[in-house]
Amino acid sequence: MTGHRSPGVPILRLGDVLVTGLLNELDDRTAIAFTEELTERISAEGARGVLIDISRLEVIDSFVARTLMELTTVARLLGARVIVAGMRPPVAITLVELGIELVGVETALNPEQGLAALGWRQAPQPLEGARRGTPR
Amino acid sequence: MALPGDSILASPGTKRSTRSDGRRPPAPASYPVRTEEDLLTVRHAVRAATVEVGFGLVDQTRVVTAASELARNAYVHGGGGTVTLEYPRDPRGRRGLRLIVKDEGPGIADLDVALTDGFTTGSGLGHGLGGARRLMDEFSVRTGPGEGTVVVATRWTVR
Fold this sequence. Notes:
The complex is a heterodimer of chains A (136) and B (159). Chain A has 136 residues and is α/β, with parallel strands linked by helices. In chain A, strand 2, helix 1 and strand 3 form a beta-alpha-beta unit. Helices cover 44% and strands 16% of the residues of chain A. Chain A is globular and about 40 Å long. In chain A, strands 1-2-3-4-5 form a five-stranded mixed β-sheet. Helix content of chain B is 31%, strand content 22%. In chain B, a hairpin with a 3-residue loop joins strand 4 and strand 5. The longest helix of chain B has 20 residues. Chains A and B meet through helix 2 and helix 3 of A and helix 1, helix 2 and helix 4 of B.
């Protein structure tokens, strides 16, 4: 009903990577709003990569799984690579038993490894690292 | 599968000779599923119930996820319904949590097909019903055209 609702999830920018995290649960509307806002930010800021920290997410049911898969596909069409990091072990076990493989979704053990996979590294001099990562 | 966090919430380490741990199981409670907000309410109630019963973290996640799938089915396919939580005991003294998910929708025309992975008529992935069955110890479905659908799913503590 509300035409445009903020997902209430901060999306930070580190160079050409967007970093965001999901809260402990995701209702349907928040999931949709989050997808829309993230998609807009990828396009507007020319992001090459997106890191989504899901370490606080306590449940991934098939709706949330579908949201993550669609988000990854949309981002890829825009030229950005998505890595989902920090899945809790009980969530991983449950997803496998549910029969969901999160096809096409790259994962990492934690945000640090996810950022490294996206090519983002902590530079010796933070300022230089930030400058190097700035697009255009 | 055991995880480090599991033992924290495991049921009290009493011998299984006594049936009662001194606490009476909570009374059954029903929750409506009419809106998306209700889906969250159900998840919260089921999470609290799994803690009450003494499930470890993996079983908590399994049962809450199964409840989420079943409640969503009732909401999306059944046009709304109710989720009832019961706290059964089996003859061996194990505690359980039983989800009874009812709707008055059109029913499931072909249950075998609906339980097959990848089949969906809604917004999910088609893993909801079959997946929920795998996450629970006992699972039954009663459905028919015009009769609505009742899913009864139970998970037991290890001992």
